[in-house]
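Hello support,

Our group uses your service weekly, and this is the first time we've seen a run hang past the timeout. The protein is Pyridoxine/pyridoxamine 5'-phosphate oxidase. I'm not sure whether the cause is the sequence or the server load. Input pasted verbatim:
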Amino acid sequence: MSANELTSGDFTERNEPFDLFAEWLKEAEDSEINDPNAVALATVDEDGLPNVRMVLLKGFDQDGFVFYTNFESQKGQELLGQKKAAMCFHWKTLRRQVRLRGPVEIVTDEEADAYFKTRARGSRIGAWASKQSRPLESRFALEKAVAEYTARYAIGEIPRPAHWSGFRIRPLSIEFWKDQKFRLHDRIEFRRASPEGDWTKVRMYP
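Update from on-call engineer: The timeout came from a worker crash unrelated to the input. Re-ran successfully.
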């Protein structure tokens, strides 16, 4: 079975984006070698200059798409300042892409605490030790900070830093793209006026 035959039926006939995304992500989990939940995250600074980097999607539902970061990092500051972002998933083996954009909100403390507890202990230490996006004088300085926090939290649970939490993008648009011959690709965009609004669907030229 080819990648374009995996999703049952014609995806361009679907009228709701979240179930379709769930199917595509599941198929990516079965086909991608590494990190099928990896996604390019685009933000914008106070001068309107964009930034993009890869992050990992850690959850999604009808409310939006969730990822976690350090609030004091560059992306954290841009997200807190501009409160909007975009994502682009690209699954090369499936020849598929999903783009979305919209306003962002901070996840609840309960959500952030629950996810933080699932992280490897070393990653939880790293959330304390790393002054993300800021100049680092040497690798030794980072290793020293890791050692200090490892000693501080040698026993018991490691609490979540107040500066580390998650964001949820509440998309106003979600576009599904699938490769076709001669670059005559299939593109469907779901749009809504607000995060609480109803979706409309538009078929786009490739």
